[in-house]
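Design request, C-alpha cells follow.
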C-alpha cells in the first residue's frame, strides 16, 4: 500500500492525509495518479476531498498505477480537476513533458498552475532552465557545452558519494553517464571505463579525459 498503492483505498488515503495535515503547521501537498486502474479514475473526487481536509497543492501524474509508464499520460482529467470551480488550490500537471514546447503547450491547454518533470530531467537537468527561458522569452538556450555536462556529471558523482558513501555512490551513478553524454559520438569506450571503475580519483581523471577529448574534437569538426 505504499505510494500509489493507497489509491486502492481512498477513505484510508483521506484519513491518512488528514492526520498528516493536522499534525504539522507546515503546508502539506500531495502527488498522486489518476486512480488505481482504468475502472477507478477517481482523481476528480479525490482532489476535492484532499482539498477539503486541508492540503495546499496537488500534483497529478496523468496515468493510473496499473499503467505504470505505458501509453501516453492523459492530461484531460488533470485539466478537469484544474477547471473544477470548487477547486482553489494549485494543481500541477505531470507526465511525459520532455521539451519546452510541450511544457508551454500543456500548461496553456490544461490551465495548470505548474508542471512537474521526472524522466526528462534525468541526465538533462537543463530542462528546467530551458523551459523557464522559453516561457519567459520564446527562446531556448544553447545546449550545454561539454564542459558544463562533464562538470554537472562530476558534481552529481560527488554528491552521490557524499550521500551514499564511496561504494554505493559510485555504483548508483553508473546508470546516469549514458544520459549525461548521450549524443556524443563514440562515447561507449569512455562509458565502459566509467562503469567499471571503483575509485573516485580515477573516475575524476576519466571525466577530465572525456572532456578534453570532446573539446578537442569540437575544435576540429562542425559537431
Ligand atoms: C527513477 C524514478 C523514481 C520515481 N520515484 C517516485 C516517487 O518516489 N514518488 C512518486 O510519486 N513518483 C515517483 N516517480 C514518478 C515521477 O514522479 C513521475 O510521476 C513520472 O515519472 C511521470 O513523469 P515524467 O513523464 O515527467 O517522468 C519516479 C519516477 C522515476 C523515473
Amino acid at each position: 500500500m505504499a505510494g500509489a498503492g493507497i489509491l486502492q483505498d481512498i477513505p484510508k488515503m483521506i484519513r491518512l492525509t488528514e492526520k498528516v495535515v493536522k499534525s504539522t503547521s507546515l503546508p502539506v501537498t500531495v502527488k498522486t495518479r489518476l486512480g488505481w486502474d482504468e475502472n477507478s479514475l477517481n482523481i476528480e473526487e479525490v482532489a476535492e476531498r484532499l482539498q477539503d481536509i486541508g492540503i495546499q497543492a496537488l500534483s497529478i501524474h496523468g496515468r493510473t498505477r496499473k499503467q505504470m509508464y505505458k501509453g501516453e499520460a492523459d492530461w484531460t482529467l488533470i485539466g478537469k480537476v484544474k477547471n473544477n470551480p470548487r477547486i482553489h488550490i494549485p494543481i500541477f500537471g505531470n507526465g511525459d513533458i520532455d521539451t519546452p514546447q510541450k511544457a508551454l503547450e500543456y500548461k496553456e491547454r490544461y490551465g495548470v498552475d505548474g508542471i512537474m518533470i521526472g524522466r526528462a530531467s534525468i541526465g538533462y537537468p537543463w530542462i528546467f532552465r530551458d523551459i523557464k527561458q522559453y516561457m519567459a522569452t520564446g527562446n531556448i538556450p544553447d545546449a550545454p557545452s561539454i564542459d558544463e555536462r562533464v562538470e554537472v556529471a562530476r558534481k552529481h558523482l560527488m554528491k552521490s558519494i557524499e550521500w551514499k558513501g564511496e561504494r554505493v555512490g559510485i555504483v548508483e551513478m553508473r546508470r546516469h553517464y549514458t544520459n549525461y553524454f548521450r549524443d556524443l559520438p563514440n562515447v561507449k569506450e569512455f562509458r565502459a571505463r566509467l562503469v567499471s571503475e571503483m575509485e573516485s580519483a580515477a573516475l575524476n581523471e576519466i571525466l577530465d579525459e572525456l572532456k578534453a577529448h570532446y573539446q578537442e574534437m569540437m575544435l576540429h569538426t562542425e559537431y
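Comment from the thread starter after seeing the answer: thanks! Residues 3, 31, 61, 94-97, 117-120 surround flavin mononucleotide (CB under 6 Å).
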